[in-house]
Amino acid sequence: MNPRFVTIGVAARESGVPIWRLRAWDASGLLTPSRTPSGYRLFSAADVERARRLAAEIDGAERLHALGLAYDVATGGDPMGAAAAASRSDAEIRTSERYGLLRQVTHHLRASDDTRSAVGFSVAQLAQFIGADAWSVALADQLRQRIEVYSTFGLSERFTDEVGPWPFRQGLGGQVYALREPISVPDLQPVVRAGREMVLAEGLRAYACVPLFHGSARVGILEMYRRTPDPFELEDLDLLEMVASLITPYIESGRLVQQVTALQQERVHHFRTLVSQFSAAGRRQREQLAAELRTITAELSATDAGSGSAGSIAARLTGLAQESEQLRSTEFDFLELVNTSVIDRIAQEHVLNCSLEVRRWPAGLSTSLASRLYLLLVRLAEEIAAIAEDHVVIRLDSSPDRIQIGLDYGTTDGPLKDPYHPSAEAGTIIDDLDAAFTAERGPASSSVTVSIPRDVVDHPGELLTQREAETLEALRSGLTNREIAARFEISAKTVQNHLTSIYRKLQVSNRSEAISVVGDAAAELR
Q1: SS3 at position 454
Q2: pLDDT tens for each residue of 30-69
Q3: If one looks up domain 95-260 in CATH, what number appears?
Q4: Structure letter (DSSP) for residue 86
């Protein structure tokens, strides 16, 4: 009766041992499955049974074995006794070097903040160790059903462009990805058909490829090339798989961060588009209302030109038309929004003492401005709360020339260890507002402040009507309300109405602040 051999996937199911652990035990010598000519593992019934026993018996020592302490299990020698032998064979020295490589790769992956460069360094060290001349890491795009190059070395730009993204299951790399098993080809040139000219031009000969896994999910492939027909050994494939298992979680983490960042930016874009559309719709409605009021006024004036009551109604309708045109985009209470949507949520989710301090803040903000300030404040509050201890205080303040959003945070026991740096999303909003960002650290509390110029917040030239600009110019000349009324032949009440509208549009509370904010802008409107 022929002995039964199974693939690594079947062996994992029958033994209850994960695939990655079977590979690690094979690399360390604790398991000795057979290999096909293409490098695929085949496990016998004895191998499966031994895997079960290893899983049951080996606990603390297994991690050391998996990192590369190879033992001659087939001879029945004692693993720990062999490791303690005084003399070291060439195989043991090579195993120690492999362990050193894995330790170096692990340390660099953990210490680096740049996933792509850390992966590149790790694979480059591996390539140098096994004598590869070029390498490539390619990742699967599940949405488009294709494999795309993530990082390369030793391959020309023309080669990577020509190869480009390729469909799943296409080529040797596609087969490795689909079958979830490594492959080794002694010489590519007699084998490859698609892209043969590029392979010849690059001088690529020996080839090895292993799949990248994260749990049970396929992530991509890791390819190694030599420019000589010296085939990669089984030991090289084992090491490739071990490094692949180390780099894959970091690659996946980096991709998740990119996806989250893209989603955040998309959210901001959609929110701004919605606000813009809402403001434009409101403006069109106001213009339409004003036009209809003027039409009614003209009809009344034409039919009852001599009627005093008709003239009064016409005058009132004219005033309503002017007021509808002068209305700003919809305003809402920014402070109420901050209290309900930011303060309460941060306090509950992060278990912090979160409070709001308001010094001088405009009573109403336009939808366009408030949306940008709200997005910025939410982003800053979330990021600060993640590193703060004990408390977060949100500060809102304004002056004639600036609006300020600040956050105080820290701990009552001492300063925070890590300074805060705004994320890419928060930085984009800060740049869009042409704002200045400052961060300070104190003995018990740190703070960040975003200072936004008022001429960026709401440019007066986009807000004031011609008569309001003239009224503001008269204020700058030092005229009183009565003198302004006499100059423009209007009532003092109308002057006061103009001033109220000016203060609201410029988000100030008195004439001196209005003059400071506008400066010479009124002259630019004429």
Answers
A1: helix
A2: 788 888 876 778 889 888 988 888 887 654 433 333 333 3
A3: 3.30.450.40
A4: S
